[in-house]
Design a protein that fits this description.
It is a multi-pass membrane protein. It comes from Monopterus albus. It catalyses: Ca(2+)(in) = Ca(2+)(out); K(+)(in) = K(+)(out); Na(+)(in) = Na(+)(out). There is one protein chain. The chain is of the alpha+beta class. It has helices spanning about 10-15, 165-175, 215-230, 240-260, 275-300, 310-325, 335-395; strands at about 30-45, 50-65, 80-85, 90-95, 95-105, 105-110, 115-125, 140-150, 155-160, 180-195, 195-210. The strands form two sheets. Strands 1, 2, 3, 5, 6, 7 and 9 form a seven-stranded mixed beta sheet that branches. It has a four-stranded antiparallel beta sheet with strand order 4-8-11-10.
Length: about 400
């Protein structure tokens, strides 16, 4: 109408009165609802209960055949906002959701062609089949199925944008936050049939992968260091008691490490994560301790007199296994005695020279000690005189 800036309240009231009815002139024609969403954040993944908590930006489009006007007759107004509670809206739900905390915008945008856009922010707690065998390098594939709750084929659903665009938008918002990142978003439309009723649904597959840096730094690297120390402990003398004590201390430390890091490890009954590597490492440490016990027991026999090595041990171990591992036998006893005497002579000479040098350094240390002690006494005396003089001056004032 002339003089108005857009559709009037009187013209919209008739539309508001039809809120309970699907906005189609011919009810045999279905209402097409276009759906798109952006995965803004992955708030939590509970492997034990198989629950995924996400935050979505959901956008719905549909056509309202009773809200059409000519912009030329309304001073060029081509879009208006209306309260969503006054209009019919499709009852689109997510089938996998256990809990839905929706912060829907109370208004919708209406185009002059009757196209409506409704934005919703959803905090979804949904079920997802979580596989953690490859933890912390796991990739999860969760499903979001959108469809009408009450309406059958009279409400159709389809994607508003391409799945690639949804994936790119989600990657842009999710790449700088949280433990997870989006790999891809795929989808397809299908028909859900239950008896004689059919529902139009659209299924999205959201593929996310974990960022493993936290777990590598806090779990894998410390565990690898402990295993490296356990390997280096084999360079300790086998007959030393300290070797067995060291290994037992290492096992105790590794057990405490696993208890502290237990909260970071996922738990589920559906699969065993690759982080069982920790239990394998602990088992290997126990095996290395048992090996030390066995070797210590064997070496104990060498101190027992008149205890002959069994023949099968000499053949199997001293002949075949020694050749296999390239074990070098010690030199003849006479050469060893000569070598020991030469080493002893060299050692005595080095001890004599070391004693002489030690005496020289001791005298240097004594001289410097006396010098610094006297300088210290001089500084203390000067400081005491300054304090006494200042005290006297203060009293005389």
């Amino acid at each position: 109408k002339e003089g108005h800036s857009g559709p009037t309240y009187e013209s919209l009231q008739a539309v508001f009165d039809l809120q309970a009815f699907r906005p189609a002139v011919n009810l045999s024609n279905p209402t097409i609802t276009n759906i798109s969403f952006t995965l803004y954040a992955v708030l939590g993944v509970n492997e034990k209960t198989q629950i995924l908590t996400t935050f979505l930006w959901l956008r719905l489009y549909w056509h309202h055949e009773f809200l059409v006007w000519d912009p030329d007759e309304c001073n060029g107004v081509s879009r208006i906002s209306l309260p969503v509670r006054q209009l019919w809206s499709p009852d689109i739900i997510v089938y996998e959701v256990d809990d839905d905390v929706s912060q829907a915008c109370p208004y919708v945008y209406v185009n002059y062609t009757g196209r409506i856009r409704w934005d919703r922010m959803l905090r979804l707690v949904s079920s997802c089949n979580l596989e953690i065998f490859s933890f912390p390098f796991d990739v999860q594939n969760c499903t979001f199925t959108f469809g009408s709750y009450m309406h059958t084929r009279d409400v159709r659903v389809s994607p508003a944008v391409t799945f690639k665009e949804m994936s790119l938008n989600s990657k842009r918002y999710l790449e700088a936050s949280g433990e997870w990142e989006v790999v891809d978003i795929l989808g397809e439309t299908s028909i859900l049939q239950f008896g004689i009723d059919e529902w139009d649904i659209i299924t999205f597959w959201v593929v996310i992968k974990r960022r493993p840096v936290l777990y590598v730094v806090n779990l894998l690297i410390p565990s690898s260091f402990l295993m490296l120390i356990d390997i280096l402990s084999f360079y300790l003398p086998p007959h030393s008691v300290d070797r067995a004590s060291f290994k037992m201390t290492l096992i105790l430390g590794y057990t405490v490490f696993l208890l502290i890091m237990n909260d970071l490890l996922p738990s589920t009954a559906n699969g065993t994560p690759i982080i069982i590597y920790f239990s394998v490492c602990l088992a290997l440490m126990v095996i290395s301790l048992l090996e030390t016990v066995v070797i210590t027991n064997v070496l104990h026999h060498s101190s027992m007199k008149y205890q002959e090595v069994p023949k099968w041990v000499r053949v199997v171990i001293l002949k075949y296994i020694a050749s296999l591992i390239c074990y070098r036998w010690p030199e003849p006893e006479l050469q060893q005695i000569c070598q020991y005497l030469g080493d002893l002579h060299t050692h005595l000479i080095s001890l004599q020279k070391e004693n002489e040098l030690q005496d020289q350094w001791c005298h240097v240390g004594y001289v410097l000690d006396y010098l610094l002690f006297r300088i210290y006494l001089l500084l203390i005396s000067c400081y005491a005189m300054v304090i006494i003089c200042m005290w006297c001056i203060w009293i005389n004032q």
